[in-house]
Automatic annotation (TrEMBL):
Gene3D superfamilies found in the cross-reference section: NAD(P)-binding Rossmann-like Domain
GO terms under biological process: bile acid metabolic process; fatty acid biosynthetic process
UniProt keyword terms in alphabetical order: Oxidoreductase
Name of the protein: SDR family oxidoreductase
GO molecular function: oxidoreductase activity, acting on the CH-OH group of donors, NAD or NADP as acceptor; quinone binding
SMART domains for the chain: PKS_KR
Organism of provenance: Aerococcus agrisoli
Domain of life: Bacteria
Family, as annotated: Belongs to the short-chain dehydrogenases/reductases (SDR) family.
Length: 265
């Protein structure tokens, strides 16, 4: 029995070619959902219910064209997962190297906020028009535990995720009258993906006064997590699948942590 009854639903996933996004795409496809992956590059995955649409989420023209292609192919849209994002670790002030490569610059600030914050608004608005028109659907915004707690060396990334929390609460209030839900998902420490590049690790290690080796050793430290382990990408995808379904029809305006109980307390 398909308890979630999601087979045949149409869902857009931004940034679905790698990391958490890829796991979400695979989970949705396995449940019989028709999926449109909006990303800059295709990962080559093929499935009868999957369409890849090259999309720049920071461009309204690109997003509008991509959404129209989904409507032309699948006929409707039931949900969107705003997952596309970027993280470039930087210090607000580098006491050892003023205006150095690891001190926050306007270019880095603009790039991270444009993708993580503006991109979410453009996609949500474009898809939201479709959902409001049919008076049904859900917008799922991918946040991060850092959006609530802050993160050393990742202030701009954390700030954009805090903005996503506010988007979620505000849009839920605006769109609820049209029977459209808006829900946030906030992963905590997750298992390793291909997104941990050397450049990212070098930058994050520097901002925290560590070597790359020390940073990597910390990945396995789960002492702050009550469940005692890192999260699995599939555990985030499982939640997204549930939120896409009508079984979650009274959940809106909140962000759900997938963090094993981790808090600062």
């Amino acid at each position: 029995m398909d308890w979630l009854e999601v087979e045949g639903k149409v869902v857009i996933v931004t940034g679905g070619a790698s990391g958490i996004g890829q796991s979400i795409v695979e989970e949705l496809l396995a449940a019989g959902v028709k999926v449109a992956n909006f990303d800059l590059k295709d990962n080559g995955k093929e499935h009868e219910n999957l369409m890849f649409v090259a999309t720049d989420v920071t461009s309204k023209d690109s997003v509008e064209a991509s959404v129209q292609s989904v409507l032309d192919t699948f006929g409707t849209i039931d949900a969107v997962v705003n997952n596309a994002g970027i993280n470039i670790p930087r210090l607000l002030v580098d006491a050892n190297d003023e205006k150095g490569p690891f001190e926050l610059s306007e270019d880095v600030f603009d790039k991270v906020t444009t993708i993580n914050q503006k991109g979410v608004y453009i996609v949500a608005q474009t898809v939201g028009r479709v959902l409001v028109g049919k008076k049904d659907g859900v917008i799922i915004n991918m946040g991060s535990e850092s959006g609530l707690e802050g993160s050393e060396g990742q202030s701009v990334y954390a700030a954009t995720k805090a903005a996503v929390y506010s988007y979620t609460r505000s849009w839920a209030k605006e769109l609820g009258k049209h029977n459209v839900r808006v829900v946030g998902v906030a992963p905590g420490i997750m298992e390793e993906t291909g997104l941990r590049t050397l450049a990212y690790e070098e930058a994050l290690a520097y901002t925290r006064g560590k070597s790359v080796e020390e940073l990597r050793a910390g990945y396995s430290n789960t002492s702050t997590i009550p469940l005692g382990r890192s999260g699995k990408l599939t555990e985030v995808a499982d939640l997204v699948l549930y939120l896409v379904s009508d079984r979650s029809s009274y959940i809106t305006g909140v962000t759900i942590n997938v963090a094993g109980g981790k808090t600062r307390g």
